[in-house]
User: Fold this.
Amino acid sequence: MVAFLENQVALVTGGGRGLGRSVALELAAQGAAVAIDDVYRDESGTGAAESAVREIEEAGGTALALTEDVTTTEGAERMVGTTVDKFGRLDILVTCAGNNVRGPLQELTEQQWDSLMSLHLKGHFLSCKMALPHMIEQDSGRIVTVSSRGAFFQVPASKQDSKDLRKPPSTAYSAAKAGILGLTTTLAVELWETGITVNALLPSASTQLFPETKARMVGGVPASQSLDPGDVAPAVAFLCSDAAADISGRIVYASGGDVILYGNQLDLGGSRMIRKDGRWTHDELAKLLPPLAGVAPGA
Assistant:
């Protein structure tokens, strides 16, 4: 299979663990040079970013480890600047950095609320803000934000219909992830004529933030049996490719062999789903997803 991201430079925030790591590995496997930003270190002092970079380099890829704080202007600026200094350009930004605090609103502290809003919303804002000048100068770029199914919940029509209501992860987490959807769709419109696309991912996978199994997804559509974050990564790589050049401002759900393209306004009735047993390839996604978005394959 021909690598479809050759000569591209990607930056993945939160790329040392979980979904971010799987995305970084997939982008590198498809030929991109990948900068991985992650502040996490385990008890032995081993950095998650450094560990992911070693794995990429051992597979023959090119990568750079960063440990900048994306919630500060200085950290986000250094993160992007170091990436461009190292590789000469920036083509792809995937914002996977996130955290979570569980609990209903009345149990959340102000500090917990601020922590989630800072990493999810401010982190996305600053990462995009610092990356955009380089993409605008190139007249091209791909931004994939990471939101969540927790950003929206179907409210039951009556109490009798509420017995299967999915429990929210937390009020703050859901609010932050909903904000990311607003940022994504609005930024896509701002950049409509620039050659830069902005799309949001709704992943379902077992990671350090959500180790438990998801029983089902929004709208009662059964979730895929696989919760491997590696099965989500091909959908991200597709959105970063030339095949998705005309797809922007869209929300894509991915879990195992399930991929759903939502309407622009999260119209569940207007969503389109594809499913297979096993992991999708880029060629398969490039053939099937563009028509669902109203775009001819290869357009």
